[in-house]
Design brief:
Layout (H helix, E strand, L loop, with lengths): L1 H47 L6 E2 L3 H5 L20 H7 L11 E5 L2 E6 L2 E2 L5 H5 L2 E5 L7 H6 L9 E4 L10 E4 L8 E2 L2 H12 L4 E10 L5 E9 H7 L1
Antiparallel strand pairs: 1-2, 2-3, 3-4, 5-10, 6-7, 7-8, 9-10
Length: 236
């Protein structure tokens, strides 16, 4: 009887383990297929990429007064679309006005920082060193409905609101659209740490949305650029 029970247990265990193995194998196959599909999409996007340079964006005044709107982004911005870090070092410099030679232009329905040589990666360290902070709005997952309904198309103004009593982060900065009903998300912690002391000191910043849409994994996202108002008036 004991032997029978042991054999039955081993058979059941084997069936369960085999079932889990098959599930794991199916998941791996699905991930491989998804990777292949993403690569096909990227190849298709690159093939369709326009050869014309990015077109100049509207002026800072239009950003500030919310007269600009654009459809959601048509495709992601890949690293290969942008200058390399070495190219950035050669291309970005301070003009005789004392500001970087960066200009925001429209590309694939998003606003991107550019220099004559090409697009500067929005996540490049070169930008924040010049006082230009571009980042994906943090926590959109928890505020997705508000973010989808917001006035946050590329070029629309954003508002930064400090939350010094936020229990999760004393440097917290909430991001609102111009309707200021509910926050769409927050500045990520790294940039909040840089910006919070300057906001608390009364520095005047301009913020506007540069991109909005759904990622490949169907998560909604929104991207914002923040800079000192005087700098914005010079480069936008």
């Amino acid at each position: 009887m004991t032997v029978f029970v042991i054999i039955a247990f081993l058979v059941i265990l084997g069936i369960v383990l085999y079932g889990e193995y098959q599930k794991d194998l199916d998941r791996k196959r699905q991930l491989v297929e998804e990777d292949k599909e993403r690569e096909r999409q990227r190849a298709s996007y690159r093939a369709k990429q326009e050869t014309e340079p990015p077109t100049p964006s509207p002026t800072a005044r239009k950003f500030i007064t919310r007269k600009v709107s654009a459809p959601p982004v048509e495709r992601p911005l890949y690293a290969e679309d942008c200058l390399t870090s070495e190219q950035e070092k050669q291309a970005i410099h301070v003009t005789n006005k004392g500001v970087p030679n960066i200009e925001f232009k429209t590309w694939q329905n998003r606003l991107v920082p550019t220099v004559p040589e090409g697009i500067v990666n929005p996540h490049s360290r070169s930008l924040y060193k010049f006082g230009i902070f571009i980042f994906d709005v943090h926590g959109v997952y928890y505020h997705e409905q508000a973010a989808r309904e917001a006035t946050n198309l590329p070029g629309e103004s954003a508002k930064l609101v400090r939350e010094p009593n936020n229990p999760h982060d004393p440097n917290a900065i909430a991001i609102y659209d111009t309707n200021e009903v509910v926050p769409l998300g927050y500045v990520n912690k790294q940039n909040a740490k840089r910006l919070a002391p300057r906001l608390d000191a009364g520095e005047d910043f301009v913020a506007f949305f540069t991109a909005v849409g759904d990622k490949a994994n169907e998560d909604f996202y929104s991207q914002v650029v923040v800079m000192n108002r005087k700098l914005a008036e010079e480069i936008l």
